[in-house]
Amino acid sequence: MVAKSGARATGASPGSDLDPLTGVDNRQGFLKRLEARLQAEAVPRCALLLIGIDDFRAFNDMHGHAEGDVILQRVARRLRDASPRDAAIGRVGSDEFGVLLPSISDPTLVRHIGAAILSMLSSPHEHAGRRHHVLASIGACVIPAAGEQGSDVLAAASLALARAKHDGGRTIRFFKPQMRSDVTARLSLVQALHEAYAQRQFELLYQPQVDLRDGRICGAEALMRWRHPARGLVVPGLFIDALAASSIASDVGMWLLQTACAQARSWSLAFARPPRVAINLFAAQLSESRLLTEVRHVLRALELAPDCLEIEITETIALQQGDEVADQLQALRRDGVTLTCDDFGTGYASLSFLKSFPVDRLKIDQSFIRNVTQDPVDAAIVRSVINVGKSLHIGVVAEGVETTEQRDFLLANDCYEAQGYLYGRPMPADRLTELLRQQQGG
């Protein structure tokens, strides 16, 4: 059996196998215990839980590292209380803890223990008159399926933890061998994206937004595509998430901003009623303090009027940002840039979001438009969004309009702008220029 570690925080000496903050094993000590258990039997049967505190970096930023240290100590204590008596516990990362279950390999029982840990950790933490809610995710692996070396087992649990966080957190996911190949494929994709950016393989297409009353093109959403030398045009669904999480997201986002604004400037010179150009920002751009400065610089350099630019942002991404980002976006609104809430209605707090994060337009997600003429629930939701826009004097645009029946429904309910295949697929700038010329002359 492996005894549950639990020395006092002050009992750890330099060079020991104990974490000086929490009193449990540090990474080195925990790996030693894990290796010893793996070597104890020819075919060891045990399990490992890797517990990661959700959004702990944001917690530290908000409350300070001293408060964060208290939470880590509380988490370690609760892990000792929630784990079997023979479990080994270690702090294996800044906000990650390992729990080795040396005599348990039944996945059902492992899941039960993991659920108990999540439940105990979710109870509020009281400290210095404050109440903190700390949530966590768990990656689990059963040995020997996860590997024969301690480092391999810990890496497997880390992959499972990453999947748990990707799936929304506050849950437990078990390691599967497929996860390793998924990571390999993702790393290959990220490398290919770096090469694509360096070799200028990204391009923008523009999907028209129209006034439903007369069919006039009044806007265009800039949508990124990847012109792969071997695979041809790659749609964003196959790469955009990996790109958004990569180290080049901000650079690519800046290229997108500059390219879209340059096209908007070209249209503003060519037409009396140029379309407003909408762009989507990466979360990495929003988290940078220079967002306001960069957008203003691009507009000034191109001599582009701010009202020719529209920034679309989902409420989910907006709510993940701090007050500084909100202040920057509101400053751009005051400059004249249009701010649109994209995919409105698909988040968790749409109405309260509008109170804390003022926008100029709401974009109805295509998932509500798809069956709006057949599904009374979708119809009611779309009407509600339109009425919210009316009440708050906010413009409303519907995306994913593909049929005349959908168009007629929107018109009948006072929604006057839309985009979708009924009016055009995403197209090169020169093709949209030709459509504008047909409508406006010039």
Structure description:
The protein has 17 helices and 16 strands. The chain is elongated, with a radius of gyration of 26 Å. It folds into 2 domains: 9-176, Alpha-Beta Plaits (2-Layer Sandwich), CATH 3.30.70.270; 187-440, EAL domain (TIM Barrel, Alpha-Beta Barrel). The protein is α/β, with parallel strands linked by helices and 442 residues long. An 8-stranded mixed β-barrel has the order 8-9-11-12-13-14-15-16, surrounded by 4 helices. Residues 186-440 form the EAL domain. InterPro entries: Biofilm_reg_signaling (IPR052155), EAL_dom (IPR001633), EAL_sf (IPR035919), GGDEF_dom (IPR000160), Nucleotide_cyclase (IPR029787), Rev_trsase/Diguanyl_cyclase (IPR043128).
Provide the descriptors you would attach to this structure in a database record.
442 residues; alpha/beta; Alpha-Beta Plaits; TIM Barrel; 2 domains; 8-stranded mixed beta barrel; 5-stranded mixed beta sheet; 16 strands
Task: Write a concise synopsis of the structure shown.
With 442 residues, the chain is of the alpha/beta class. 46% of the residues lie in helices and 21% in strands.
CATH class of the largest domain: Alpha Beta
Output the strand order for the largest sheet: 8-9-11-12-13-14-15-16
Give the rounded overall mean pLDDT: 90
Strand content: 15-25%
Instruction: Fill in the CATH topology of the largest domain.
Output: TIM Barrel
The number of domains: 2
Which outline best applies? elongated
Question: Which sheet architecture does the biggest sheet show?
Answer: 8 strands, mixed, barrel
Which regions are unreliable across 5 or more consecutive residues at pLDDT < 50?
6-10
Which structural class is indicated by helix and strand composition?
A: alpha/beta
- The CATH architecture of the largest domain comes to Alpha-Beta Barrel
Radius of gyration: 26 Å
Please count the beta strands (DSSP E, at least 2 residues each).
Answer: 16
- Taking the alpha carbons of the first and last residues, their distance comes to 83 Å
Helix content: 40-55%
